């Protein structure tokens, strides 16, 4: 037996017991012939004492003198109360210490490349190369432990709500739409390749055709995309869900309670801004927050003043309206916070606007004496009154403007809004705000005058099959498709699917793809839809991204036990690697010559 | 709203309620203007009635007349009691029917390629091509549902016992030992490849170095092996588990209760032969059952009679012993079952023995009058007495012999033993019998006189580091390595790992691999083991194989929602497929010319 207790469980109740502990040496202190060793494992830290006058064998003392940090040792000894005044309230085991009688070393350790403590400042490259050491650090371990609990909570929640967990294949066929597939050459089938699923989209629809009715899975997904801070390279996980005989509202009635329960259970110290999630159509969200994944923890919504400034003396605004554009404004409530921005703060925000393509960033400052702005002199009293009627500015507040083409103005103000959030602490990091974004446009007009799918081709359009009637403008077709935004991240995407094969064929015709092409590219779904398809729909939560938000992480790599680097490498395992010729030959492939650039 | 109830929940309690159902048309019966439609979903079957005299609209009647099997329809109507004598006790909903007022069709269906019923005899190829229809069949769905419950039970059990679920990477480095890896060409790193993990072996050991202490995962594993009945191609799942500061007994104390609880919870109608699992060393198991995965549901163990027949007048036996071989025998207890085998049954068993390399299959038949056999005339009374002392044969029993080289005799008798099990129903299919097989030999002698690892190179040898002392015969080294057999299948494999880097290097030296090679091939583990390694060990249960046994399936493909075919193809999704040149170019690979054979 290597241990009778872990390093996180001995308390005053154990005083007088002989125990065996096995763990890592966290640190050592020598006090005049008596050696103190803190032993550390997953569960905690226990202080051990090697004292020749309290029964430590000479061999144990000799060993203890040889210990270095991260040695793995086993000790047997007596639990006793710590001397008065030496208790440590921060540790569960802080009232006791173990007086060692016998010790042995399981394993020695070289000097670790970084400190194994909670505040290690080692760079990510070193940490990932030695992830097995990084995992010994409490904050890193706690994230992995949080992930395990979130996995369990999620699976239990969906199972308890009647969803059947189905593991869909990891080896599948290449899907012609979407991001790049990862491929696996087949040894048994010369010149053929499996693909890893970008998501189990087709499988989950086939499960609905198969009568599974309610499905979920924490599904591994694979996309050959370039890594970025909120997207892990190679592989990531989504909470994938699909249900039959549902309309959009039925689906929201699953996703919304799940998200609420998840927050309440996993991060009870965090607060939902709104228990019922607000809803914005895609177009409203762009118009109001300049984003299809708005951060609604803070207000600063945009108001439209086009009508008010149509004939303004301020030609920038009037011209924008005459050109078919918009005049929008948002209020920065300095009155509730830090007051009016400094000159350099305003310059920073102007630079943000300019980086997004604006010429500048017009604004009005409200002081105790009233409004102040270089553009005020162009405004009529009515124009100012219109602004103030809608914003009711107080001293300390500011109003910021955007004028011009609608999409550009929304994008610019949206970015400025987020920059103000970050610069002036406009959000409470313990607040979580979800918002539904609905009614995504089905199509976009390409430069060459043809149409492409803007989002998921398999979504049911509003209006059903009739949406595709002759003569309908494709840009006027909206899908029963929705996202859920959370604190400015997209955390869910889904839709009611188009279960009518004739309508599906029509949807593809608009982007210039005939029935034969649909059949060739989506053969399984095309075939399955011939045999009785229930109306169905669903969603996928980005598991990793949700976890990142709940754990206040900004780097998605922190939430994996063994993350890939920012270059899509596993530096610890040395993946990817060159492969020997024999193995490639078995797979019927060869590597191309590297072309000089 | 598409339904107020499912097709599995309406009972007499709902009589008088107006309900909406949406489901598949299972079948239709017309009775003089009244149409009966059984509607089927995941939850059950509900009878609906279209009767113009009971409020069905003419449009509903017209629709019902157009229904074919597998149409998906929605109906609204009134729940009423079935007329006297028409109740169906086999259905939860058998006391009621729904009198349809209004109906609509969601989706039509072509004639399915096979009957959607519990007893479909369609061949596997058709079923897999249309798996979405196969899934509508109750026995198929029930297996997938069983799998979901087993997933949940397993994860809950390990979580509740303090194990942390960790998702290890699916994109990793190629591992030089073991089966063939599947490879993924990297787009970002020209000429390099990721590999899919054959098992998370290295990761779980690194988790132990990282202090995770107790880890589990239902891990997807990938091996490029040729498919067979008890091995799914491409991907399969194992219950992967590892723990720190443990010895073999501690590990058994986890695996054994898990297996017991799994049986008790998932298949309560099945019975464990022995609550405490018997243990056999690898060598004992071979000597006693002729297999390292013995089916111990029935006895028929081998007894050794070498000493008794050393000087026998039966020269086949005497010669075998003189040549250093064995004489083994097992008793077939016809007295408890069908009595003595027929001539043709004996011939069949002899053919089994011969197929395995035996010259024949000697036997003695016990009749009421006493023993009878062509070889009896060569036996002395003492020889016969020795046999009878150990087997105590009754009339109806038979004794079968094998003589010659030990491994061959064990293999032959082992196969004959299983052939008798199958031919004469010697086991109860509701009985489950586990057995531990321990102490696997570390090395095997190759034909060229050098040694190779017989099993896992990372196992700790019995005797620890000292096992590798100078002059020790490698064939005398046994690993702390074990399997768990269940009803004749290997369902678990594991070991106490060798956590001592010096000993690990020695283990590899015996097979001619130096330290530099270990470092190059197992870099992550080699590096990690420099920084304080706890003693650790674990196991992996074959999740799919366990499930197969619990569900009495003999074809492992039955236990996946979307299985690969016996040729490693997904015929429904058409994977693997050819890939276009552009995509291969991005991955820096090309397909080799197909050589004519």
Q: Explain this structure to me?
A:
Two copies of one chain form a homodimer. Chain A is of the alpha+beta class and 597 residues long. Among the domains of chain A are: 12-107, Nucleic acid-binding proteins (OB fold (Dihydrolipoamide Acetyltransferase, E2P)); 298-426, 2-Layer Sandwich (Gyrase A, domain 2), CATH 3.30.1360. Chain A is 28% helix and 25% strand. In chain A, the strands form seven sheets. Chain A has an eight-stranded mixed sheet with strand order 6-9-10-26-25-24-19-12, with helices on both faces. In chain A, strands 1-2-3-5-4 form a five-stranded mixed barrel. In chain A, strands 13-14-17-15-16 form a five-stranded antiparallel sheet. In chain A, strand 15 and strand 16 form a beta hairpin. The model of chain A has no long low-confidence stretch (mean pLDDT 94). The interface between A and B is large, with 127 and 126 residues.
Going by helix content, strand content and strand pairing, the class of chain A is alpha+beta
Q: Name the poorly predicted regions of chain A.
A: none
Count of β-strands of chain A: 27
Give, in spatial order, the strands making up the sheet with the most strands of chain A.
Answer: 6-9-10-26-25-24-19-12
Helix content of chain A: 25-40%
Cα Rg of chain A:
31 Å
Strand residues, percent of chain A: 25-35%
Oligomer category: homodimer
Q: What's the CATH H-level superfamily name of the domain at 298-426 in chain A?
A: GAD-like domain
Largest interface, C-beta closer than 8 angstroms, per-chain residues: A-B, 127 and 126 residues
Please name the CATH topology of the domain at 298-426 in chain A. Gyrase A, domain 2
For this structure, what is the CATH class of the domain at 298-426 in chain A? Alpha Beta
Terminus-to-terminus distance of chain A: 61 Å
Mean pLDDT of chain A: 94
What does the largest sheet of chain A look like? Answer: 8 strands, mixed
Would you identify the CATH architecture of the domain at 298-426 in chain A? 2-Layer Sandwich
Task: Estimate the global geometry of chain A from the Cα principal axes.
Answer: globular
Tally of individual helices of chain A: 17
